[in-house]
Amino acid sequence: MSKKINIKIIAAELGVSPSTVSKALKDSHEIGRETREKIQAFAKLYNYKPNSLALSLRNQKTMNIGVIIPQITHHFFTRVISGIESVANQKDYNLMICVSKDLHEKEVKNVEMLTNGSVDGLIVSIANETLEKGEFSHFQRLVDEDFPLVFFDRVAPNLKGDKVIVDDETGGYNAGKHLIEKGKNRLAIITTPEHVTVGVMRERGFKKALDEQNKYYNQNYVIRVEEKFDIEKQIDQLFQLKEIPDGIFAVNETYAAIAMKCTMKRGMQIPRDMAVIGFTDGVISKLTTPTMTTIAQHGYNMGNKTAELVLQRIDEKENEKLPYQTVVIQTNVVEREST
After folding, report:
1. What is the pTM of this model?
2. What is the CA radius of gyration of the chain?
3. Which helix (H) or strand (E) holds 150?
4. Contact present, 307 and 293 (Cβ < 8 Å)
5. 32 vs 209, residue with greater confidence
6. Which of 1, 6, 164, 321 is deepest in the core (most CB within 10 A)?
């Protein structure tokens, strides 16, 4: 078979309809398993590849979704991307991923580049610097144009659009409650600057847990990390106090791991002298010694839901516009050796 293969040729060779071939190649369960496997094996044998350009022209779509994340090194964002890709690929969409490095200007350039005809929809976790500046005009333009746009994790509270967020407040509350249940009384928090919404919400929940148990919320035990400076030096301030805390909640696993390092450098035992709980439940949490208790935020599920929302926006018609949605992903405590 020297002729270039396509869906019609596969259909004719196997005695089925072109639509059956198309569905089988997408692994649709509308087609019986035996037929599906036969079609897929035939396509693989003759190295069939769908013509993505023809598909996009037929649908007047690029078949691409843009994703802008603040950092690529964070395990949480890699899990979200995996969740997005899983759903997008089922609909024959590819991802174009950009990293803002938490810089406003780079984020603006990412948005301009991706939305200049390169993608059908955009998924964004907002850069720290953008949140600090409160400058969202590059997103407002997309909202005004009804461009399919979904925010996740880091969002701007007053900016319209679909959003997928973690229940950060409940996560912070459960972290504080967990430390109290472990018999800890002098509780500290390592968090973000106040312009980062996720840190604010996690701190709010943490404080609520302390208030319920009549625990003093000591401002000396609050470290707001500025990442452009030495993080370990900032966290180590807790260990220079006259009365060192005996429990720490860190709003991400990196801060928690550094807190554990500072604890052990002082010759203190974890969790006897200091209990530590982080937030994310990524690779770091499992590899620390001792292993780290964390609040799991289920990044993969967040990615799934984010992709579903942006695809829904891409496919909706002008007269079918749905109200904006905010989807909240629940968290849970994953207890390990650090508490």
Report:
1. 0.77
2. 24
3. strand 149-152
4. no
5. 209
6. 164
Distance between CA 187 and CA 212 in Å, rounded?
14
Q: What's the CATH number for 168-296?
A: 3.40.50.2300
Domain 62-165+299-329 architecture: 3-Layer(aba) Sandwich (3.40)
In which residue are the tokens 């429990």 written? 247
Q: What DSSP state is assigned to residue 297?
A: -
- Tokens 């692994």 sit on residue: 27
CATH 3.40.50.2300: which residues of the chain? 62-165+299-329, 168-296
Calpha distance 320→314 (Å, rounded): 12
Q: Sign of torsion, CA 303 278 155 167?
A: positive
Per the DSSP assignment, residues forming a β-bridge with 94 are 64
Element (H, E) at 105: helix 104-114
Give Cβ neighbours of residue 168 (< 8 Å, ≥ 6 apart): 197, 198, 201, 202, 205, 331
Can you spell out the DSSP letters for 206-274? HHHHHHHTT----GGGEEE--TTS-HHHHHGGGGGSSS--SEEEESSHHHHHHHHHHHHHTT--TTTT-
